[in-house]
Design a protein that fits this description.
Elements lengths: L3 E2 L3 E10 L28 E2 L1 H13 L4 H8 L13 E3 L2 E9 L5 E6 H10 L19 E4 L11 E4 L2 E6 L4 H12 L3 H10 E4 L1 H10 L2 E5 L2 E2 L4 E2 L5 E5 L5 E9 L9 H11 L3 E3 L10 E6 L4
Parallel strand pairs: 6-10, 7-9
Antiparallel strand pairs: 1-2, 2-15, 2-17, 3-5, 4-15, 5-6, 5-15, 7-10, 8-9, 11-14, 12-13, 16-17
Length: 299
Amino acid sequence: MSTATTDTSKTALVFFHAQTPLHPGSGTALGVVDLPVQRERHTQWPTIPGSSIKGVFRDACRGRAPNGACTAVFGPETAEADKHAGALSVTDARILAFPVRSVRGVFAYATSRAVLQRLRRDTALTGDPADIPIPPPPAEGAAYCATDSPLRIDADHVVLEEFDLLAGTCDTWDQLAGRLATWISEDEEVRQEFRSRLILLDDDQFTHFVRHGTEVVARIGLDYERKTVRTGALFYQEYLPAETMLYSIVIASSARDGSGKSAGDVMNFLKSNIPPVLQFGGDETIGKGFCHVHFATDR
């Protein structure tokens, strides 16, 4: 996926590969889970707000570049926000693939046609829509994966969680898996693992897993003198599991602070100052939210 350019903007597709459980929180809920992850209202698929991503990007660049350059790209601090806007826009991160436990091959990267269709539509924001081959819908109780996938129990079956699915493939599968693998990482080993574990489920099955296949962890606060749980300090928190993959669109425009930075300068600044691993979401002090960040390029 090439970075697209117009006279006034430059855009890129960026992928986030969770290395540890991730909590993009939405605040307190009224259900069993006290601190759920943020989800889209209409799909219940997990998401990371664009404002959170932009804030993490800004914090990373602040430690690696002069403050004036960061101000030109991200805008001034809140106290001086009326001076000018930043030159960078970031969309909410959307789900690409969700890890699902497998009887064979440990786990699968599950996706669906609705996810792929939305990815193809979203890439139109870059001015360079991607040629993503969308497979036909799998039959009920069936899924598509590579013929040599480690997920296959035998030639015709995969078992994800408690679901026994017929394993098939299609003419465009290798092309699709290869295209997505190239976008998510520069590491050939990671790409190969992704290709072999990628599986296409029907939309309803995929939605079931992203709704009910997250990690829910009990958290406590201790009374340090008595070494017991403080009253009211037991709560349940939801995490997206490690290996979850999401994507976002970054749109750069010319700087508005009079520095003369072009949209290309802004995008190059971002790419050159973003480290390969960043931390998103809550609970950063206990090692949650580490994600590999990769700007997609052509194969």
